[in-house]
């Protein structure tokens, strides 16, 4: 898609103000407000900015944290991780590897009953769900 060449002005035109705030300025949507928080639809979650495949519904689980949670990304190289010290602690920010848009954060060792012991806490506004076909 060549989204690496997209200017911030162009992102502003392509995205809604909320999408821009989260995806391009590392904002966070309010908990329990995102459209995918409780979604059980099978399919692929794509980056809302560039369309890259990021997560699959099979890896989504109910964490009751207020945001969609996954226990792993679709592919190891679909996302990049960045150390985030913005709130005084250390968190691991998750960005789309294709367009460098902010997706959310990943947390480890919280005790959720998932294979990776990870919670990929992702903003709904960063994602677009492509429901699985009937193939």
Summarize the structure.
The chain is mainly beta. The protein has helices at 8-14, 17-25; strands at 43-47, 53-56, 60-61, 69-70, 79-84, 91-96, 102-108, 118-122, 127-131.
Please render the helix and strand layout as text.
Blueprint (H helix, E strand, L loop, with lengths): L7 H7 L2 H9 L17 E5 L5 E4 L3 E2 L7 E2 L8 E6 L6 E6 L5 E7 L9 E5 L4 E5 L4
Antiparallel strand pairs: 1-2, 1-9, 3-4, 4-8, 5-6, 6-7, 7-8
Salient structural properties:
135 residues; Metal Binding Protein, Guanine Nucleotide Exchange Factor, Chain A; globular; six-stranded antiparallel beta sheet; mainly beta
Describe the protein.
With 135 residues, the protein is mainly beta. It has a single domain, classed as Peptide methionine sulfoxide reductase (Metal Binding Protein, Guanine Nucleotide Exchange Factor, Chain A). The protein contains 2 helices and 9 strands. Strands 3-4-8-7-6-5 form a 6-stranded antiparallel β-sheet. It has a 3-stranded antiparallel β-sheet with strand order 2-1-9, with no helix packed on it. Strand 1 and strand 2 (53-56) form a beta hairpin. The radius of gyration is 14 Å and the shape is globular.
Secondary-structure element string: HHEEEEEEEEE
Uncertain runs are none
Q: Give average pLDDT, whole number.
A: 94
Oligomer: single chain
């Amino acid at each position: 898609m060549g989204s690496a060449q997209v200017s911030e002005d162009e992102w502003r035109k392509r995205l809604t103000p909320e999408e821009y705030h989260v995806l391009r300025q590392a904002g966070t949507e309010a908990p329990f407000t995102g459209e995918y928080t409780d979604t059980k639809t099978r399919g692929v979650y794509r980056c809302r900015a560039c369309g890259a495949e990021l997560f699959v519904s099979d890896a989504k689980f109910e964490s009751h944290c207020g945001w969609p949670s996954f226990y792993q990304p679709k592919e190891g190289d679909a996302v990049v991780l960045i150390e985030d010290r913005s709130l005084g602690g250390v968190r691991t920010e998750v960005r789309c590897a294709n367009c460098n848009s902010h997706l959310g954060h990943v947390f480890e060792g919280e005790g959720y009953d998932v294979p990776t012991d990870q919670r990929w806490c992702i903003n709904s506004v960063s994602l677009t769900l492509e429901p699985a076909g009937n193939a």
